[in-house]
Amino acid sequence: MEEAVRDDVTAQRERLMEGLRVYGGHYTELSRRFAAWLGLHSTDAVAVLQIAAAEERGTPLSPARLSERISLSTGATTALLNRLEAAGHITRTREHSDRRVISLRSGAHIQERADEFFGPLAHRLDATMSHYPPDLLTQFESFMADLNSTMDAHLAEPMKPGQ
Predict the structure, then answer these.
(1) Buried b / exposed e across 19-32, counting CB within 10 Å, b at 16+?
(2) Quick check: 105 and 60 in contact, CB under 8 A?
(3) Residue 100 confidence (pLDDT)
(4) Which residues pair with 93 in a beta bridge?
(5) Class of domain 41-106
(6) Helix (H), strand (E), coil (C) string for 20-60
(7) Are 70 and 81 in contact (CB under 8 A)?
């Protein structure tokens, strides 16, 4: 009996991981479509989204932090930021008391375009989540935080040869 319960839990965990992989694939496809819609390379669009999202949270990214988030070298990130700034998609500001610190801000039109593109999906996702009780959503928030912490820890480890 105990082995059957363990098998059920293992199968449930596998289904959850598969669901997360599918969601990740959907997110990647949505990012690709957003990039095409804006006429940008997918890496550029992902960078713009990261910059805008950080701004919305009230914690603008520095070029170094963006580089970490999108897994680009500092040189490649500089080239990307130069392209985005020349196109008017982002600005670099020195708003910190330490004037050496650069903050990245999205252009005014970026948030508007992102809202236009992602707004319908945001409404659908909100409607879907509204079917679940707040206590279950709270558990899911904890679950996602734990998964993200685990992923962050794994990604922080140096890669071993052959990985």
Answers:
(1) eeeeeeeeeeeeee
(2) yes
(3) 74
(4) 103
(5) mainly alpha
(6) HHHHHHHHHHHHHHHHHHHCCCHHHHHHHHHHHHHHHCCCC
(7) no
Location of structure tokens 């490649």? 76
User: Domain extents for the chain?
Assistant: 1-39, 41-106, 108-158
DSSP 73-118: -HHHHHHHHHHHHHTTSEEEE--SSSTT--EEEE-HHHHHHHHHHH
Q: Which residues, including other chains, have CB under 8 Å from residue 55's CB and lie 6 or more apart?
A: 105, 106
Percentage of the chain modeled with pLDDT above 70: 97
For residue 76 the two structure tokens come to 């490649």
Cβ-defined contacts of 31-36 (< 8 Å, 24+): 34/114, 34/117, 34/118
Nearest to 43 by CA among 81, 70, 79: 70
Which uninterrupted H or E stretch holds 134?
helix 134-156
How many CB atoms are closer than 10 A to CB 135? 8
pTM given for the model: 0.78
Buried b (16+ CB within 10 A) or exposed e, 69-84: bbebeeeebeebbebb
Q: Are 69 and 50 in contact (CB under 8 A)?
A: yes
